[in-house]
């Protein structure tokens, strides 16, 4: 353990894990049989210190806002980056990264995916030219400012469909790529006045639904709070990139501005590289991605390639959502 939230595998632990994961055929839909294989590997080969922190995080009695795992197995050869909606097996030598991020996700919760993120359980975040101005994981030339992933989905259906957490791992490194920034809202809330806290906890904000979710006419929530719970165990619903939040009073706007400044003040940046896995608790930690231009390979494909998995405590709240595959759902507002 490097610090209280960063854990590193030894070279021996890493290499044994690589050998085991290399023999697992990646199932892009996350079947039960596939999940069982990965859990068996995890409990037989992950060191006790890593299993312990993952189990504690899953219990969520005293969760960390983030976890970082270092010196993890990586794919031996990366040939190019894929189209994020269609992973071509020729892009790399195997499926170590997919098996790895799925294994970790299964120890924290239940992994799942939404169809328009890509129809596979592991989402490939590769910047696209046509999406470079989009406020999504496929964008690049705009800052994807601090946010809780899918905040509006805590309120739209009456069932919380926002992920409990997000896992990110690097597949391919872009030396000109962006940092991912993390901010623990618990630290930020300590910097605010009681008046600001009262406003943030009141039904004074409308959260807009991301454009790609808007299919059935629902474009926003009703008036909702951005902070629920106390300062030690808050449930945050803030989104700070453009066009997503509408404060409903002057005091609400002032509280929002102060919260944003506090979020930035306590944040830090991390480069999500190959061999590194980042877990973000989406209930209390906001994340952002810097804007960047990036670099390209000889095939004119972006060098940056990040993989992501959403996790929920369980999939009970998805029972009314159209199930495409075992862990892949099609949801529209």
From TrEMBL:
InterPro entries: Clavaminate_syn-like (IPR014503), TauD-like_sf (IPR042098), TauD/TfdA-like (IPR003819). Pfam families: TauD. This is TauD/TfdA-like domain-containing protein. Belongs to the clavaminate synthase family. GO terms for molecular function: 2-oxoglutarate-dependent dioxygenase activity; iron ion binding. Fe cation binds at residue 287. Residues 108-309 form the TauD/TfdA-like domain. Keywords: Iron, Metal-binding, Oxidoreductase.
């Amino acid at each position: 353990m490097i610090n209280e939230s960063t854990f590193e595998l030894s070279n021996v632990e890493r290499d044994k894990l690589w050998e085991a994961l290399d023999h697992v055929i990646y199932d892009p839909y996350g079947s039960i049989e596939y999940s069982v294989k990965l859990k068996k590997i995890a409990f037989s080969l992950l060191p006790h210190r890593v299993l312990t922190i993952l189990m504690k995080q899953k219990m969520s009695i005293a969760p960390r806002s983030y976890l970082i795992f270092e010196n993890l197995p990586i794919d031996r050869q990366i040939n190019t980056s894929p189209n994020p909606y269609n992973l071509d097996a020729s892009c790399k030598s195997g499926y170590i990264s997919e098996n790895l991020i799925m294994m970790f996700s299964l120890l924290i919760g239940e992994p799942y995916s939404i169809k328009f993120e890509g129809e596979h359980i592991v989402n490939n975040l590769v910047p696209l030219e046509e999406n470079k101005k989009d406020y999504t994981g496929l964008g690049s030339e705009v800052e994807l400012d601090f946010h809780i992933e899918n905040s509006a989905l805590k309120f739209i259906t009456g069932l919380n469909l926002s992920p409990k957490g997000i896992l990110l791992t690097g597949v391919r490194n872009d030396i000109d790529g962006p940092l991912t920034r993390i901010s623990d809202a618990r630290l930020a809330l300590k910097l605010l006045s009681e008046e600001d806290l009262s406003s943030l906890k009141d039904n004074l904000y409308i959260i807009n639904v991301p454009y790609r979710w808007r299919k059935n006419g629902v474009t926003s929530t009703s008036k909702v709070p951005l902070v629920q719970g106390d300062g030690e165990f808050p449930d945050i619903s803030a989104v700070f990139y453009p066009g997503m939040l509408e404060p409903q009073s002057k005091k609400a706007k002032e509280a929002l501005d102060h919260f944003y400044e506090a979020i930035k003040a306590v944040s830090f940046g991390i480069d999500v590289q190959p061999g590194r896995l980042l877990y973000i608790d989406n209930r209390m930690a906001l994340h952002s991605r810097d804007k960047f231009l990036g670099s390209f390979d000889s095939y004119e494909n972006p060098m940056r390639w990040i993989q992501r998995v959403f996790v929920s405590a369980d999939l009970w709240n998805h029972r009314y959502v159209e199930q495409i595959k075992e862990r892949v759902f099609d949801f529209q507002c």
